[in-house]
Amino acid sequence: MDLRNGLRPLGSTPAEFEQDLLSNLYYRRGTTVESASAQDAYETLALTVRDRLAARRARTAAAQYDSNPRWVYYLSAEYLLGPQLDQNLLYSGTTDLAPAALKALGFDPAEVAALDVEPGLGNGGLGRLAACLLDSLATMDIPAVGYGIRYDLGIFKQSFENGEQVEKPDDWAFQGDPWEFPAPDDRNRVGFYGHVGPEGWVPGEVIDGEPSHLLVPGYGTETVNFIRLWRARATEASFDLSRFSAGQYAEAVDQAVRAENISKVLYPDDSTESGRELRLKQQYFLVSCSLRDIIRRFRFRNHDWAEFPAKAVIQLNDTHPTLAIPELMRLLVDEEGLDWDQAWSIVRQTFAYTCHTLLPEALETWPVAMLGRLLPRHLEIIYRINDGLLGEVRSRFPGDLDRVRRMSLIQEEPERRVRMANLAVTGTFAVNGVAELHSQLLTATTFHDFATMWPDRFRNVTNGVSPRRFVRLANPGLSSLITSGLGTDAWLRDLSLLAGLAPLAGDSAFRAQWRTEKRRAKAALGLGDPGALLDVMIKRFHEYKRQQLKLLHIITLYHRLKSDPGRFGVPRTVLFGGKAAPAYTAAKSIIHLINAVAATIAADPVTSGQLRVVFPPNYNVTLAEKIIPAADLSEQISMAGKEASGTGNMKLALNGAITIGTLDGANVEIRDRVGGENFFLFGLDATGAAALRGSSYQPRSYYDSDPELKAALDAVLAGAFGGVGHDVAQSLLDRDEYLTLADYRSYVDAQDEVSAAWQDQERWTRMSILNAANSGFFSSDRTVADYLDRIWRATPVRP
Ligand code: AZC
After folding, report:
1. Residue of minimum CA distance from atom 7 in ligand 1
2. Verdict on whether the full-model pTM lies above 0.95
3. ipTM confidence score
4. At what angle are helices 508-525 and 621-630 packed, to 10 degrees?
5. What CATH number should be reported for the domain whose range is 467-778?
6. Cα–ligand 1 centroid distance for 7 (angstroms)
7. CATH code of domain 69-81+118-156+217-226+276-462+786-792
8. What are the sequence ranges of the domains in the chain?
9. Which listed residue (59, 651, 673, 766) is catalytic?
10. Which of 194, 312, 417, 740 could pair with 365 as two cysteines, CB 3.0-4.6 Å apart?
11. Is 378 a known active-site residue?
């Protein structure tokens, strides 16, 4: 008996697990073994596993309540959690019990497991980072809550039609989501529009935010935290019964539909501009519901507002939740009656902001007119914050009007807009970039003026990834090998222990086992020839990431193969994975061209067994977990100075892929750690790239002077790949915003070094092991430790 909560402990023997499964099938699913479908079995299994975590959650909650700690609240518009079943089995210690119990009841465990659908509530790196950080927070026993939006439709499902990307809605929770605890009785009211009168803001429209939560277990500890996701619900009053009775069915539900649209769909936007009012509504919806919840939680044990910053640190994951700053001001001043300065001091001590970009176009701004219409009181508050900010700028830099204009929260030209990044920097005590280089560039460029005025506010926290998800779950074979090599599995909670693998790089028996695991992972991916070098580029499609550079290399390899098949040497499979934002035409053209090149190469017998290009559609966390273990070469080839960090680079290095990359984002730190001899470096660095872009860059001069480059582009222009890609080649020749042609020769030469290295398999394996051994730094546990030390200052509470 667990006396603390009066809970009956759930059994850990096979018989007890089977009993629980059976009773859940009957009592909660309401069916029987005889009539149960695979879906019934899946949902029942999920409940049985979830119960075990819920018991731990209850103990965690009790301990957290008792200690009244400082909480880390993570506000993020996106979470890319990945499949839940494999993770929750592992973290609840039921990985072996579950299949046995399913079999005993007559179900096929593989069929059941295949029904687990990943909630695609994010676009890319930013959303996945949020998930890794929550995993580490729980593993490190830090009291933390993640707040987000429970989108009905997650990131679109990608398919290819004639090689072109087609987007379909992802109704991920169509069958219900067994991992989720809905709390329809726990709604928060959110206002929009209206006016500000003497009595304060009177919203013109109200909707409800309905929470549900997902458990976030720690690994190797009792702690279970949670993510609270908000869903927009129409209020009772929004259904128009009289219209319905009059047969006006659409009009009757119109208001309700509009309300619920707020959490309908994740914005399919990865740092390109969307600028729609619905997105702004989403942002305010998230912020308003979450702050009310945070305040409610504060009040469990505390009464004095001055204590608030000691009990809550709120991390803004990029600018999407920045309205939390004026919203907390509004709550404190308008609803709690604090004076402005008191409230501002609390706000400034509570929030911190993580920036994830270097693309100027990715810094969110909202038209003043739109914001003022949707949130009139917030606009007033933003103006008042701006008065304070500009007052400080003027007194520090008298007469420097330009600086005032640059730092203002309001952009004046060509249209008045609110600059969310400036607001985020102004309303927080800490601003961090996500890799050393990124943080340096932020203070040197994007936030230069702010860093001059408030140098202490800026810091770096290099990203990391969960070793549980991206090594242990994704790559069980390699994980066992690592555990046997190190003689312990403690590396799963302390990834620096991987350093102990370095001496094993010199052990030929260990190298042979390492190679066996790579080959096994390739075979599991279904890539025919496990002897071919698997060259992997998996990430969102964006011109700055330069999938087009990889493509030019592929065409060059193809040309070499055609001109002299005997000399080719190293068989390669190039694998792409990733989605392009639906409105991002240039990125979609690159996808189309990749598929066209892949088809041409596949149809040409000369390439057989030598060169293959594969592009499985719908890259997501589930697919990433299959591809990453199999990869030999990791493509991290962004134009230097544009990729904030990258996290795929870390996942791949940890699984023994060797990076070919520019000195961009976290590549710099990966190379520092794994050593220049275990990393294929090429291209301009950030300084060189900025200088070349600043001068009159002539992409055509590279084309004119490099016959292989010319041949590759000419082939595309001449329609050699089914007539596809003319626009891609033309834009490279005319503008080439991201210096693809400038870096082409250096890249192709580095790829020749890759091929030479691959020919010496012993050498390659040594490099591969050393990549994993020296990448322990890139655990999200270390990232969380850095956040704790540099920003959050929260301490563990153990149940
Ligand atoms: C990404 C950055 O592009 C990537 O470099 C970084 O590793 C990642 O965040 C995590 O910090 N940014 C985004 O995903 N941005 C959006 C808007 O999705």
Report:
1. 646
2. yes
3. 0.98
4. 140
5. 3.40.50.2000
6. 42
7. 3.40.50.2000
8. 69-81+118-156+217-226+276-462+786-792, 467-778
9. 651
10. 417
11. no
